[in-house]
Amino acid sequence: MKIKEVSEFTGISAHTIRYYEKQGVLELPKKDSSGHRNYSDTDVELINWVACMKNSGMSLRDIKGYVTASIEGRNEDALVALRIHLEKLEEQKKNIDHYIDVTEEKINRLSN
Amino acid sequence: MKIKEVSEFTGISAHTIRYYEKQGVLELPKKDSSGHRNYSDTDVELINWVACMKNSGMSLRDIKGYVTASIEGRNEDALVALRIHLEKLEEQKKNIDHYIDVTEEKINRLSN
DNA sequence: CTTTGACTTAGAGTATGCTCTAAGTTGCTA
DNA sequence: TAGCAACTTAGAGCATACTCTAAGTCAAAG
Predict the structure, then answer these.
(1) Burial class for A6, CB neighbours closer than 10 Å (0-12, 13-18, 19+)
(2) Would A110 be classed as within a structural domain?
(3) CATH number, residue A15
(4) Is the distance from CB of B52 to CB of A99 less than 8 angstroms?
(5) pTM score of the predicted model
(6) Looking at strand C, which nucleotides approach a protein CB closer than 7 A?
(7) Is residue B30 part of a domain?
(8) Domain boundaries, position B57
(9) Angle in degrees, 0-180, between the axes of helices B14-22 and B3-10, rounded to the nearest 10
(10) What is the pLDDT of residues A61-94, one digit of tens each?
(11) A4-39, pLDDT tens digit by residue?
């Protein structure tokens, strides 16, 4: 896949994919004969998962940690990164539930 | 209350409170004889609610919209801002639930 | 009366995460 | 083979939300 196709498939712009590669969040894929990026299915799968982590609020720093651990075969480290993120998500959920309550209360108070 | 007390009470730094005032998110409070900010109980209550909205992910732009409507007595507009925010919170909650599922799945797949 | 510390302002600097530009190369299509 | 779209790079610019600095004022404590 070329970068534009990956961009369409994953919802991350080509600019942003290159930016992630520059930041070390993603590895540079193989290049074709004319020097253009050529992404394998495995590459695309990883980028898709990166998109998911990004959308769920994981910082690029943490995503980079996860990706690097994955690539280097440090599965336990990759798992730890995911578990930490899961905890953060659950914390976020608790907070949001709280803020929903508080906001509803405020709305009710103002409605009367 | 002086700015430092407000800062301690609301958890927003004095720097940030001044920044909010500069940005028009908050109104400048009355100043005492030596030109120092002097916050009334009503001011502090509002700043506390701003802190709550900020922590729940509302943008400064939207908080400003809410605060301005409140101050100008446009109660219906203030309510609309809160209702929109509530919808966003509920959307966020849905997303987070989804990402919790996906992340748990990924963890389980990697654990085997 | 001087020192200490909190206050004031304008404005610069930082962190995160993009987003775009410029200048140039390459590859398909008519 | 000319033209156009997509690719390449380095690097600049932008949005959000702070966070800090410099230079100065002011008031209470020792």
Answers:
(1) buried
(2) no
(3) 1.10.1660.10
(4) yes
(5) 0.90
(6) 6-10, 16-21, 26-27
(7) yes
(8) 3-81
(9) 100
(10) 999 999 999 999 999 999 999 999 999 999 999 9
(11) 999 999 999 999 999 999 999 999 999 999 899 999
Residue B107 lies in a domain: no
Nearest to A52 by CA among B90, B105, B99: B99
Run of H or E residues at B37 = strand B37-38
Query: Looking at residue A13, what is its pLDDT?
Result: 95
Number of domains in chain A: 1
Q: Report yes or no: A14 and A26 within 8 Å, Cβ to Cβ.
A: no
Alpha helices (H) in A12-74, listed in sequence order? 14-22, 41-55, 60-71
CB B96 to CB A96 under 8 A? yes
* Protein CA at A87 to nucleotide C1' at D10, angstroms: 39
Cβ contact B20:B26 at 8 Å: yes
Span CA (A108) to C1' (C15), Å: 38
Show residues of chain A in contact with B56, CB under 8 Å: 95-96, 99, 102-103
CB contact under 8 A, A107 and B83: yes
Q: Would you say residue A74 lies in a domain?
A: yes
And the tokens for B105?
């799945």
Closest of A18, A16, A14, A36 to residue A27, by C-alpha: A18
Q: Supply A94's token pair.
A: 């608790």
Considering CB atoms only, which of A92, A97, A103 is closest to B86?
A103
Q: List the single best residue of B103, B107, B112 to mutate versus A (max A Cβ within 10 A).
A: B103
A15 beta partners: none
